[in-house]
Amino acid sequence: MSRHFDSLVFPRPTQESLALRFGQVSTLLDQGNVPDAARLFDAIRRDYESWSALVGLRFAQDTTSPEARAERDYADALTPHVTAHEVTLKRRLLEYPDPAAVAQAITPHTLELWRTDITTFDPRIADALEEEARLSGTYTALLASARLEIGGKSVNLSGLAPYAESTDRTVRREAERVRWAFFERNATQLDTLFDQMVHLRHGMARTLGYESYIPLAYRRMRRSDYGPADVARFREDVLTHVVPLVHDILRQRCETMGWEVLYSWDEPLIDPHGNPRPAGGHDLLMARAQTMFDRMGGDLGAFFGLMRDGGYLDLMNRPDKAGGGFCTSFPTVGMPFIFANFNGTHHDVNVFTHEMGHAYQNWKSRDLPAIDLLWPTMDAAEVNSMALEFLTWPHIDLMVEPGQGERFRQMHLISSLSFLPYGVCVDHFQHEIYAHPDMTPAQRHETWRRLERRYLPWRDYGGLPHPTQGGRWQAQGHIYRSPFYYIDYALALCCAMQFWIRSRSDPQGAMAAYVALCAQGGAQPFTRLVRSAGLASPFQPGVLADVVRTARDILNT
After folding, report:
1. What are the Peptidase M3A/M3B catalytic domain coordinates in residue numbering (predicted)?
2. What residue spans of 298-345 are helical by DSSP H?
3. How are beta strands 148-150 and 153-155 bridged, if at all?
4. Phi-psi domain of 135 (left: phi exceeds 0; alpha: psi -120 through 50; beta: other)
């Protein structure tokens, strides 16, 4: 039985304690003891990652806590020192005079990842990395501070979602107005924060010898098997195959609803009868989820029981909690943790199943021999999460109001397809921004509007000032906190939908392939993991065309 989350306490590292422990690794290498050096190096990193994950989680759970913020700042300041030690030892192992001894102690893919890692850090950028983390925390806290008045209530950004999906068009418009009024009030600070981040990242890249931040960002994401040119071709495939389908879906919705114009506040109402809602509140959903995962077979149900009974779930929305959802983990105890913000909409079901995919993968790969393999790179990690969203389809009736299962499945398919144009728009925007780091804030907003017109030609904000002027991107936290991450969702969705297509004719085979993929963790790079699961790479011509054909048949579009 795993330890209960409430009992978790990890030693608080210091610069001195870390220097001592990493120094012990160096001593073992001096003595020619590569196996023990590799084991100790891995153990130190697991200890640090567990402590750091808990610190980050505590801050996300209460962004107004002075203690949580102080500990987060402490961790941010410590991280560059840890990275410096890690890069030094990785480089030493990669250059070790007895490569055969290293190859026996460390997997080939781990070494491949390290060859990328050592090109992303130098002590000269340590202060910049600490500042980058501080700015990211400022953005998180700013958005968490939002207090929005609507319908006689005060809600945060996550709590706005039920109003944004109301069947009452005037309520949806008011939700959109309130949302963008917050961003408009904070536009100057958001522009300033991002400007600082862009110049900071560009400066780090130049210090490390890169022409721009783009190649450094790809290396920080540990992308070893594809580059910007491959991603650009994928964006074009989305433009060619998916954008026309989504445009047709929205035109059809307009006709069904009798709207002359589809505005941005109409897009979240995917189902003309009202988006299907969860079957009930948190406790009911957790009981239903246990039944659902038990029915799916294998050890998925047992794993969810560990998560629920062990306290490794924080799903309810509340004031001062950071927005969004994520999965983190504590490698010294072999357990992941899911963070979310339930708000009574279908997103509760989507986010929960998505993050459960991440958690299940991390748990399945918890016994792999190196910390570098416990998670895949984020492109592959998102396959694990998005695929589970689709694989739960046969049992999703449990999670939504009675009689709404088929409507939920159709809505999930439409929202998945609709995400792809937006996902590549975010990615293209970041490539433009970091290729031209000296853009003014106004030029960045115009760049977003230009790309939005390309990938989302239907988007009409009805004159709402901030998004109409190109400020929509400021609500996308990944752009600030995790640059170049967002395309991973689009690449992974292309793979997840292949799991969906396979599950329609061979549900057991699709589930078995999914479990096997999760168990591999990060043992291979993205394209090799995809191939091992019997999927086609998103970079392979025609893959999206096949997905779109199947979707059109199902949606009669």
Report:
1. 163-266, 310-543
2. 300-309
3. antiparallel
4. alpha
pTM > 0.85: yes or no:
yes
- Specify whether the CB–CB gap between 527 and 480 falls below 8 A: no
What count of other Cβ atoms lies within 10 Å of the Cβ of residue 57? 20
SS3 content of the chain, % helix, strand, coil (to 5): 70, 5, 25
d(CA 395, CA 388): 12
Residue 306 tokens, joined: 């560990």
**Contact yes or no for 297/207 (Cβ under 8 A):** no
Residue closest to 204 by CA, chosen among 256, 265, 131: 131
Q: And the tokens for 120?
A: 């992303």
* Distance in angstroms (rounded) separating the CA atoms of residues 183 and 472: 9
Helices and strands (DSSP H and E) totals, the chain:
24, 5
Sole residue written with tokens 């306290």: 311
Other beta carbons within 10 angstroms of residue 297's beta carbon come to 13
What are φ and ψ of residue 84, in 5° steps? -60, -45
Q: Tell me which residue of 50, 129, 37 sits closest to 83, measured CA to CA.
A: 129
Give Dmax (Cα) for the chain: 78
Q: Which regions in the chain score pLDDT beneath 50?
A: none
For position 311, what pLDDT does the model report? 97
pLDDT at 323: 87
Return d(Cα 115, Cα 96) in angstroms, integer: 13
Nearest CA to 14 among 86, 78, 85, 89?
78
The two structure tokens encoding residue 8: 């978790």
Neighbour order of strands in the sheet with 313-316: 313-316, 335-342, 326-330
DSSP 198-261: HHHHHHHHHHTT-SSHHHHHHHHTT--S--HHHHHHHHHHIIIIIHHHHHHHHHHHHHHHT-SS
Note the pLDDT of residue 1.
Answer: 53
* Residues in CB range of 183: below 8 A, 6 or more apart: 190, 466, 471, 474, 475
Backbone φ and ψ for 208, nearest 5 degrees, come out as -85, 0
Supply 523's token pair.
């043992």
CA–centroid distance for 110 within its chain: 22
Rounded Cα–Cα distance for residues 128 and 164 (Å): 38
Token pair belonging to 223: 């992308």
Instruction: Look up residue 93 and give its amino acid.
Output: L
Residue pair 511/296 in contact by the 8 Å Cβ criterion: yes
Q: Sketch the domain layout of the chain as residue ranges.
A: 5-131
Nearest to 261 by CA among 273, 276, 251, 271: 251
Which amino acid, residue 428? H
Instruction: Give the chain's radius of gyration (CA, Å).
Output: 23
pLDDT at residue 556, rounded to an integer:
81
